Amino acid sequence: MSDNAHAPAAPGAEPSNAHGHAAHDDKFYIRIWGILLVLLVVSVIGPELGIRVVTLITAFGIAIVKAYLVLKNFMHIGVEKKYVAYLLITMVALMVLMVGGVGPDVLRHDGHRWSNVAAKKTVEEGLKAGGGHDAHGGEHKAGEKPAEPAPAH
Amino acid sequence: MIEHYVDSASTFSGDIDNVILVILASVGFWFILAEVVFFWLILKFRAKPGVKAQYISGEKPHEKKWVTIPHYATLVFDVAIIIMAIKVWHDVKINLPEPDSTVRVIAQQWAWTFVHPGPDNKLDTPDDIQMVDELHVQENKTYHFELTSRDVLHSFSVPVFRLKQDAIPGRIIKGWFKATQTGQYDIQCTEICGIGHGIMPARIIIENEAQHRVWNTTNAPKLAEVAPTTPPTSAGGMP
Amino acid sequence: MPTGRLAVWWLIASEIVIFGGVLGSYIMHRLGHPEWANQSVHTNTWAGAFNTFVLLTSSLSAVLAHNAASRGDGKRAAKLLWATIGGGAVFLVVKSFEWTNEIQHGYTITSNTFWSFYYTAAGLHGLHVIAGMIVMMFVAADAAKNKELQRVENAGLYWHFVDLVWIFLFPLLYIAK
Amino acid sequence: MSTAAHAEQDHAHGHAHHDEGFIKKYLWSTDHKMIAMQYLFTGMAMALIGGFTVYAFRMQLAFPGMSVPGYGRVTATDYNALVTTHGSVMIFWVAMPVLIAALGNYLIPLMIGCDDMVFPRLNRLSYQLFLISSIVLIASFYVPGGAFGGAWTSYPPLSAKAEYSLTGLGSSMWLLAVALEFAAFLLGGINFVTTVMNSRAPGMKMFDVPIVVWMIIIASILFMASVGPLIAGAVMLLFDQQIGTGFFDPAKGGDPVLWQHLFWFFGHPEVYVVLLPAMGIVAEIITVFSRKKLFAYKTVLYTAIGTGVLSFFVWAHHQFIAGIDPRMANVFSVTTLLISIPVAEMVFVYIGTLYGGSIRLTTPMLWALSFIAEFLLGGVTGIFLGASGSDIYFHDTYFVIAHFHYTFFPIAFIGSFAAITYWFPKMFGKMMNETWGKVHFWGTIISFNFIFIPLFFLGARGDHRRIYDYRHFPDLMKAGMQDMRILATLALLVLLAFQVVFLVNFFYSLFKGAKAPANPWEANTLEWQAPSPPPHGNFPQGLPNVYRGPYEYSHPDRQADWWPQTEPEPTKS
User: What are the backbone dihedrals phi and psi of residue D477, each rounded to the nearest 5 degrees, phi first?
Assistant: First the structure.
C-alpha cells in the first residue's frame, strides 16, 4: 500500500510544527484561566452598576478580551500560519458586512418612504406591558434570582 | 423599445424605457463585438495539418492590453449605465413629488383592495371608495400610494407605468405615479403569494377628469353629509 | 499544517458564519426592540455566569490535555479530556434546569421573539456542546491507548471555539438587560 | 503528526481495497472516484426530475388547462410546486452535485496528484447526507398537502405558515432537504480545501494548479463563507413553521425582509459557486483543444478571486423593489455593475486564448465554446437587472427567467456536458461516440436558444413569473404572446428529446464504447497520466512529480505540441 501513503506535503506547506506551540507548561494555562475568571467576574458585576457605557464596556468589551485570550493562548492562533487568523477575521468581517447591509431594513423601523408599523406596534405594546407577559413574569427580577438555580429544584 | 410592446402611460415610464434602450445599445455593442471576434477566431484558427499553435503566455504587457483595454472600456460603460439608472431610480423610488391625491393599496391572498379617497380627496373619511381588483385614477394627476399587505408578500406591479413595488405585511410603503393617458390596463401581483398567485389580476382604469368625477360621485358611499358640490379633485391637480 | 488541524480551522470558519447569522439577526432585532429589555431581565444571569465559568474551566482542561498529548502522555490527556466532557455535562445540566425553570414560568420559545432567539441561539450552541462531547469521547478512548494523539489538539480547538461562542452569547443573552 | 493522519486514511482504504462486495464497492465506498460517480449519477437522476417538472409546467403555460401527457391536469397548486421543485432541484441537486461535488471529487485528487481526498470517510458521509436530502425532497411530493410551492427563494410569511402556503409538511421537508444538502456540501468543501492545501504532488506550486481545481476551491470557500447565515435562517424558518415562533412574522416582532437578506446573502455568492467551476472546466477544455497556453493564467485566477470577493457585496440587487430602503439600492446597483468587470474579463481571457490556436472542434470543445457564446448573452442581460432603474420594470418578469437561464443553463448543463464528454474516457475508460455527441450538441444548443429568446420578449412585454394561466390577464394575451409561449414549449420538447440522445450515447459508450487510451486528448494535466479508468489509489506507477504549469501546449522548444506536467526537464547538454 505504499502508493497510498501521502506524498509529502507540497512545498507551500511546511513540515508540521504542531508540537512547537505546546511550549508552555501547565501553570501558564492555569494563569490564563485565572485571568479569564477575573474578567468573567468583572463582566457580571459591571452591568450591575446600571450605567450604560459601563455595561457596554464590561459586557462586550470584556467578551472581546476574553475571546482574544482564548484564541491566543488556548487555540495558539499566534503560532498558527497567518492565513488562519486572516480567515477567521474575514468571516467575522463578512458578518459585519451582512449586519451593515441588512440593518437599514431590519434594525430600523422607519426608512425612506417606508415604515415598519408592525414592529413599532410591538415595541409600543411591549414597553407598555412592562415586565413579564404573564402573572409569573413580574415576580422575577434579575437581582432576586437565586445564585444557583439548578440545585434548588 | 418597450413602448412598442407595452403602452407607456406614466411620467416616468419613458425614462425607464430610455434606460433600457441605452443599456441595450451599450451591452448589445459589446455582445455583438465579442461574439464576432469569438466566431472569427474559431474560423481563423481551425487546426490545419502541420501548423503548430502559437505560444502566448498572455503575461506580457503588449498581450495583456487585449484584456486590459476592454476591461477599462467595460468600466466606462458601467459608470455611464449606473449614472442613468440611478437617476431614474431617484425619480421613481426616492423622490416623492407633492401628491394631488392618495390611494391605499392593500394586498391579500388573493385580491387587491383599493381605497380611493372619494369626492373629498381625503383618505379615512366616510366617503372613501373601496373597490376590489379595480383602481380608478385620473390622468395627469400625481398620486401617492400607500402599499401594504394583510398576509404574505405581494407585489404591486403596473406594467404600463413601469411601476413595481413589493407589499410587505406589517409595513407601509409609499410610492407615486402620474398617469399620462387614459385607458384600462392590467395590475399584476409579481411576487408569489400562494396557490392563487395566478388569479390575482386587477385592472387600473385611468380616466379623464370628467369621467373620474362621475365615477367618484356615483360610487361614493351614499352619505347625506357628502357635499356633491365640492369639486372632487383639487384644482391644483392639473399641471 | 497537519491536515486534521487545518480542517478544524476551516470548520470553525464555517461555524463562525452560522452563529454569525443567528447572532447578527438577534443583534439587529434587539437594537430595534427596546421592549425586549423587559423580557431579558427574566434570564438568569447567575446561571449564565456559572455556565461561563464551567466552559472556561473545561477549556482549560482541554488545553492541558493538548499539552499532555504533545508530551506523549496519552493517559493524562484522556483523563483531562474526560474532565472536559464532564464540564460539558455540567453545562448541559445547569442549562436544562435553567430552561425548565423558565418554561415553568411561561417563558417558552413562542412567548416572544426575544425568547425565540434565546432558545434558538443557546440551543444551537448546546447542540455544538453535545457534538463536541461525543467527538471527545472517541478521542479520549483512543488517547488512553496512546493512539491518534494529534486528535486531542483538534478536538480541543473545536471545544475552545464552542467556548468562544458562549463568551459572546453570555453578554448578549444574559447581561444586556 | 501528518503520518498519523495518513494512517487514518490507510486504515480507511484498507477496507475498500480488498473486499469488492457490491455494497462496499458501489454504495459504501470511500474512494473519491466512486463518490464522484455517486454524485454524478444522483445529479443526473435529479436532472430527470427537474426536466420532468419543466415539461409539465411549460405544457400548462403553452396549452393552459390541457391534461399533460404523463402528468395530468396541472392545477395552480401543482404549478407552484412544479416551478419550486424545478428551481431548487436544478440548482441545489443538479448544478451543485455535478459541478462541484462530482467533478471536485473526481478531479481534485487526480489533478493535484494524490491518491484520495484527505478525509475519505467524511467524503462518504457528505454523499450520504446529500442522498438523504434528495430522498427527503422527493418524499415531500407524497405528503398530505403536497410539495412546497413557495418558489425556491421560499420567502416568508408564505413559507412560514401552513395557513398561507397550505403545504405545512411539504414546506418543512423542503427546508430540511435544503439544510441537509448544505451540510453535505460544507463537509465536502472542507475536504476539498484541505486536500488541495496539503496533498499536492511534489513540485506543484500554487500557479501549477489547474484552473478548474482553483475554481472549485474558490467556489467551496465562497459557499462556506456565505451559507452560514442561511443555515441559521433555515433553522429559524423551520421553528416558525413547526413550533410557531415569530422570527419572520411581523405581528410577533419578526421581519420577513430579514429572510430575504439571509437568503440572498447566500444566494448571490451561490451563483458564482456554480459559475466558477464551469468556467474552470471551460479553461481546461479550450486550452487542450486549441493547443494553446491559457491566456494570462494569473489574470484568470485574480478575476476569479475578485469575482468571489465582490459577490458578497451585491446580494440586495435581488431585492431592489422588495421593500428594502431605496437608498440602499444605489449602493448595490454600483457594486452589481462592478462585478460585471471581472466576469467580463474572464470571458475576454478565454476568447484571447483562442487567438493563434489550432482549434479542434471535438464534442467537448463545442460544448466549451458554446458555453462562452451563450454565457455572454446571460451576462450582458444581467446588466438590465443590476441597474436599479431598469430593474423596476424587469424584476420578476420572464426577462429575469431568460437571463438566469442563459447563465444557469450554460453553467449546469453546457458545463456538465463539456465536462462529461471531456473526462468520460478517464472516468470510464471508454470513448464516447463523437457523431452522436455532436448531434446531441446541435440539437440542444439550437433548441435551447429557441426556448429562451422568446422568453426575453415575453418578459419585455410584461409576462410576470410563476403564473400558471395567463388568460386572466388581458394585457398578456395580446396577439402573438401565446404563440411565443407555445414556441418556447415546443423548443423545450425538442431539447428534452435530444437529451435521450445523450443518455443513450452515455450508456452505450459506457458499456460498448471503444477502449480509451490513458491520454486520448494529449493533455498535460496529471489526471491523464493515470490509467483510464484510474485504479484505486490513482497512480499505480507511484505518485507523480510536477515540473511545470498545466498549460504548456505548443511550446516552441518542443517537437510535440504538449508537455505533460510530470515530464522532467530535459537535461541541458
Answer: -115, 25
- CATH of residue D475's domain is 1.20.210.10
Chains that touch A (3 or more CB pairs under 8 A): B, C, D
Which of A1, A9, A119 lies nearest to residue D10, judging by beta carbons? A1
Supply the DSSP symbol for D296. Answer: T
CB D253 within 8 A of CB C33: yes
Q: Which domain holds residue C95?
A: 3-27+45-175
Verify whether the Cβ–Cβ distance D348 to B169 is below 8 Å: no
Q: Is residue C84 part of a domain?
A: yes
Give the separation between CA A65 and CA A87, rounded to whole angstroms: 19
Q: Please indicate, yes or no, if residue C37 is contained in any of the structural domains.
A: no
Are D258 and C6 a contacting pair at CB < 8 A? Answer: no
**Confidence band, pLDDT 50/70/90 cuts, at residue D36:** very high
Report the residue of chain C nearest D179, measured CA to CA. Answer: C18
Q: Rounded to whole angstroms, how far apart are CA atoms D400 and D558? A: 49
Which residues of chain D does A112 touch, with a Cβ-Cβ cutoff of 8 Å? Answer: 325-327
What is the ipTM metric for this complex?
0.91
Q: What is the pLDDT of residue A152?
A: 33
Instruction: Indicate the number of domains in chain D.
Output: 1
Query: For position D145, what pLDDT does the model report?
Result: 87
Domain count, chain C: 1
pLDDT tens track for C99-145: 999 999 999 999 889 999 999 999 999 999 999 999 999 999 999 99
What's the average model confidence in pLDDT over D182-187? Answer: 94
Buried b (16+ CB within 10 A) or exposed e, D502-520: beebbeebeeebeebeebb
Least Cα separation, residue B126 to chain A (angstroms):
23
Measure CB to CB from residue D198 to each of C6, C17, C148 and give the nearest one: C6
Contact between D5 and C4 using a beta-carbon 8 Å cutoff? yes
Out of D186, D198, D239, name the one closest to residue C3 (CB). Answer: D198
pLDDT tens-digit profile of D323-378?
899 999 999 999 999 999 999 999 999 999 999 999 999 999 999 999 999 999 99
For the four alpha carbons of C97, C98, C101 and C104, in that order, the dihedral sign comes to negative
Does any domain span residue C39?
A: no
Q: CATH number for the domain including C128?
A: 1.20.120.80
Tell me, what's the pLDDT at A137?
39
Task: Pick out chain A residues at pLDDT < 50.
Answer: 1-22, 132-153
CB neighbour class for D4 (10 Å; exposed up to 12, middle 13-18, buried from 19): middle
Q: What is the CATH number of domain B101-234?
A: 2.60.40.420
Indicate the pLDDT class of residue C167, thresholds 50, 70 and 90.
very high
Peptide bond into D250 cis (omega under 30): no
Q: Would you say residue C59 lies in a domain?
A: yes
Domain that holds residue D311: 31-529
Would you call D324 an interface residue with chain A, using a CB distance cutoff of 8 Å?
yes
Report domain extents, chain B: 2-94, 101-234
Predicted model pTM: 0.91
